[in-house]
Amino acid sequence: MLALGVSFLVACGLILLLKRVGQSSIVACLVAGLLLQLLSGAVGGAHAATRDDMQEMGILLLLFMAGLETDLGLLRRDWKLVGITGLGQIAVNLAVASALGLGLAQLGWIELGDRTAVLVFGLCLTLSSTVVVLGLLRTHRATGTRYGQAIVGLMVLQDLVAVVALSLLGLEEGSHSLGPRPLMRLSVELVLLSGLMLLAGRTLLPWILVRIEHDESMLLIGAIGWCTAIAGTSHFTGFPPTIAAFLAGVALSETPQKHAIVPRIEPLKTFGLTIYFIYLGFSLDLTSFEPSMFGPILLGVGLIVAGRPALMRVLGRWGGLDSHGAQRFGKTINQGSEFAMILAAGALAAGVFTRDTFLVVVLISVASLVIGAWTHDHPPHRTAARDPAG
Which of 171, 218, 329, 384 is the most exposed place for a label (fewest CB within 10 A)? Predict the structure, then answer.
C-alpha cells in the first residue's frame, strides 16, 4: 500500500507537470510505474495477486467507459464517412504495419514467431489513443464538426477491434494456436450477448435508471454494479470479461440517462487508467533494452506520427471531408494508443510476444504519444474575463 500510495502521488505530480508541455497522463503514469520499481522491496511476491486484480479492474473500467462513450447512432447516421475513414484506416494501416513487422522480423530486428504475432504487432501500430483524441476534440470544441464526428466513429471502430483482439488472445493464455471451434464459439456468444445488451439498453435499463437518476450516488452505484455483474457473470460462463464490460457500457450508452452517467463515471475511468499504466510501467524491464531496438522503434514511430496523418488526409477527402477537415483528421490521430499497450501486454501473457517485442511496442506507443503531442495545437490558457458589471 505504501508503494502504491507513493506511486499515485508521483503520478499526480507528473500529470500536472507534463500537462504544461501538452503531454498525456498515460505517459506520466508509466513513468510513475517505473519509479515504483525503486520501491519494489515494498511490493513483495505475496502481493502479486493483488496487483493482478487491480490491473484487471483497471482494464475493465477502461473498457466499460469505452463502451459507454460509444455512439451507435453516429455509425448509423454517417455510415459512409465513418466506413471509408474508419474501416479504411484500420485496413490500410494494419496491412502496412503488419508488412513492416514482417520485414523487421526477417531482418532479425524483432522477434515475431508467426502470422498471429505479425498481425497483433500491426494492430498495435494501427490504434490511436481514445483518451488523447477525445480530449483534443473537446479542447478544440470540434466534437460536433464533420471531421470530429468522423474521428469519433473511427475511435468506436478501433475500440471494437481492440476489444475483440484482446479477448481472442485471452482464449488460450499461454498458447496462441486458436482453432476454428473457439473462434466460432466466441462469435456466436458475441452476437447473442450484443443482442441482449442492446435489448437491455432499450428496455430494462431505462426502466430501472429512470427511478434512480435523481440520486447521483445511486446512479453511480447502479452503473458500476451493472458493469461488474455482467463482467463477473461472463467470467463464470467462459466468455471474455473484457468484451462483456465493453458491451455493458454500450448497453448504457443506448439509454436516455447516458449523458447523466458519463460525467459521474469519468473519474473512475481516470482511476482505472492510472492503476493500469502505473502497473504497466512497473512491469517494464528497461534493462533488457538493446541498441538494435532503435531501428524498429524509429520506423514504428515514423509510421504512426507521419504515415498515418498522410493516409487519413487521403481517406478523409474520399469520405467527403474538405481539405482542412481532412488535414485536421490526420493531425489529431497521430499518436499511439493505450489499447495498443494493453493489447501488447495481452500478447505477452498469451505467449504471442516475447518480452523484447512487448518492450518495443510499448516504447513505440509512448514515443509516438510524446512526439504526437508536440505537433498538436494547444490553445493558450486564458484568465477569466472580469465582469464589467462588477
Answer: 384
